[in-house]
Amino acid sequence: MELSTNQHFKQTVKMVRELLFWCSCAVILLFLCVIGIYTAARIAGPPPIEVPQSSIYYAADETIIGESNSGGEKRYWVNLQDISPFLINATIAIEDQRFYRHIGFDVKRIAGAIVADIKAFAKVQGASTISQQYARNLFLSPEKTWQRKLKEAFYTIRLEANYSKEEILEGYLNTIYYGHGAYGVEAASQYYFGKSAKDVTLSEAALLAAAPKGPSSFSPFNSWEKAKHRQEVILSEMVKQGFISEDAATEAKKAAITLVGNTNMQQRNIAPYFQDVVHAQLKNELGLDERTISLGGLRVYTTLNPNMQKIAEETLANTVAEESLIQAAFIAMDPKTGYVQALIGGRDYQESSYNRAIQASRQPGSTIKPILYYAALEKGFTPTSKFRSEETTFTFDDGREEYTPQNFNYKYANDDITMAQALALSDNVFAVKTHLYLGTETLVAYAKRFGIESKQEQVPSLALGTSGVQVVEMANAYSMLANGGKSVEPIFITKVVARDGEVIYEKEEQHEQVLDPDTTFVLTHMMTGIFDDSLNGYANVTGHNIISKTTRPYAGKSGSTNTDSWMIGFTPDLVSAVWTGYDKGKAITLPTEKTYAKNIWVDFMEKALKDKPIRPFKPTKNVVGVNVNPESGLLATEDCPVKRYMYFIKGTEPTEYCSAPNNTNETTPDHTEQPIEKNQEKPWYKRIFDWLSE
C-alpha cells in the first residue's frame, strides 16, 4: 500500500515537472514570439501614417477662407498641443483608460470583454485600444475576419514599436471619424461647434468624444438624447480617472451647447475667384500636382483682406442693377508689396467661374494714357506742354491710311490745351498727337516697362487703349505709380507650409526702381486732376460726377470704349481697378451702366480707407510746385481767374506769367516743338523769383 502511494506521488511530481517544463517552454516560446514579432516590427520600420488631408487657404489675417475638398470629406491635421486638453482626456477616458500604460493591447480589458461576451452569448463589449483603432483606420478594410485581426495586431505592434504615445494619440485624434464627413478632431470641432479643436469647452469635448463610438447613433444632430447620455457617461468617467472634479462635471452636464452643423473652413463663397487664382498658382507657378494641392494637407497663406473683399462684393452688388446683364471685374492691391487684397472675377461665381479680372483681355480705353504721358514727361514734356484740341485727321503709312480720333460727345477746345488739362478732360486728340510725336513704338515699349505683358499693337489708336489688357495688369501698372516707380507684381500667395510643418514656398519681395521717382510724382499729381474742377475746360474733368463722394486725395483715370468702361485709381496705400462690360462685346448704351465703374471704384475706396489716416502724395526732392493757370499753362497771377498748384521737375516749371484772361497764347512757350530737357538749368530770373519766394 505504501509502495503504491509512493509511486503515485512520484508520478504526480513527474507530471508537475513536465507541466512546469512545458509551461516554461510555452512561456519561453511566447516570449520568443513576442520578441520575434517586436523585432520584425522594428525591422519593418515605422508604417506610413500619412492620410489624405484637406489643404487650407488662409487670408492675410490668418482667418480661414477656404479649403480643398475631396468627395465631401473634410480632413485636417493639427498638432497635439493644438487640441483642447478636455478633448484629449475625454477621448482617453472613454476609449482607452490605460493608453499610456499598455504596449498596444490592454490585456485586462480584453479579458473583461471576453467574460462579458460569454455571459451575454454575444459580442457586447469592445476591447480595442486607441493604438488598435488607429492601425485599423490607417491600414485595414472594415471586414471582420481573423486575417484582418492578425494584420491589425501586427500594425498595432509596428505603431507602438516605432512611434511615441503622443504621436499615436495625435494621429488617432486626427483620423478618427466623427460623422457628417468630418475626419479628425479639427474637422469635427469646426463642423459641430464652428470653432477650432483647441477652443472647445469641457462640455463640448465630452459631447464630441461620444461620436466615434457610432457617429450615426451618437451624433447630436442624429440623436440628441443618445449623444447627451453618452456625454454624461464620459464626464463621469473623467471624474473617476481624476481628469476633472465632480463640480466641473456637474457644471459641464448643465452647460448649454450651440451646434453649428457646418464648417467654417469650407468657404467657397469667400472670394471664390481669388481662390481659383491661388489654386492655379499652386499648380502652375509652384509646380504642385493636383493630388498634393487637394489632399496634401497644405497650409496656404494668401494676401486676401477679408474686410476689403466684403466691401468690394457689397459695393458691386449695391451699384449694379440686379436685372442688368452687364459683367464686372475688380481688383485691389497694396502698391508697396503687390499683395492682392480683394478680387472679383464676375458678378456670380455659381453662374460663371470665368475670371474676368485675370483671364479676360479688354480694351483699356483712356486708362492707358497715364503710361503715354509718363513717356512724354521722361522725354521732355511738362504738365503745361501744349497741343491743339480740334478734330484732326492723321495720315500714316505713306498717306495710304487715315485716322480721325474723336473726343467724347465730339467736343473740342478748338484751341491749345495743356497736357495736365488734356489728361483731366481725357482729350483724345491730344493723346494721339503725343503718341505720334513720340513715335508709335514708344508707348509699346513703355507698356512693357509698366509690366503689361499683353501684346500692344503699334498703331495710332493705341493711345486710346485699343489693344486688349487684363484688369490685373492695369492695377499692377498703376501700383508702380502709387509706390513711386518701383517694380511690383500681383502677389496672391505669401507662404505654403507642408503637412509636416516644412515651409515649401515663401515669397521673397524684390522691388527695383524702374521709373524715375520725380517723373512718377509729377504724373501722379497730374492724375489727381480728374477730381479737380479747376481743370474744367470745354468739358468737365472726367471725375466730376464722383468728386462729391471723395474725402481724401486720389489719383486716377477713367476709360471707356463702346464696349468697356474702366476706373482705376489709387492712394499711396491702395490701388483698385474696376472694369464693367458685356462678355460678348455688346455696346454699353445705357447711361446708368456707363457710370458703374466710377461709382464702384469711389465707393470701395471710401469704405476701404474709412478708418485709415489720410495720406497725401509726397513730393520728391527734385520737383517744385507752383500755381499755374490751367488754360494758359503760365504762372498764375491775380489777373488769372483760375489757378491750380502743379508740380514740375525742377528747371522745367513755367517762367512766364498769366497777365489776363483770354490773352495768353502770345506768351505761351511751345513745349511740344522744343521739349524742355529734365536737366536744363533754371533761367537766372526764375532763380531770383525762387529766392524772393523763400
Automatic annotation (TrEMBL):
GO terms for biological process: cell wall organization; peptidoglycan biosynthetic process; proteolysis; regulation of cell shape. Its main location: membrane. The chain crosses the membrane at residues 20-41. Keywords: Carboxypeptidase, Cell membrane, Cell shape, Cell wall biogenesis/degradation, Glycosyltransferase, Hydrolase, Membrane, Multifunctional enzyme, Peptidoglycan synthesis, Protease, Transferase, Transmembrane, Transmembrane helix. SUPFAM superfamilies: beta-lactamase/transpeptidase-like, Lysozyme-like. GO terms for cellular component: outer membrane-bounded periplasmic space; plasma membrane. Residues 659-679 are annotated as: Disordered. In the N-terminal section; belongs to the glycosyltransferase 51 family. In the C-terminal section; belongs to the transpeptidase family. This is PBP1A family penicillin-binding protein.
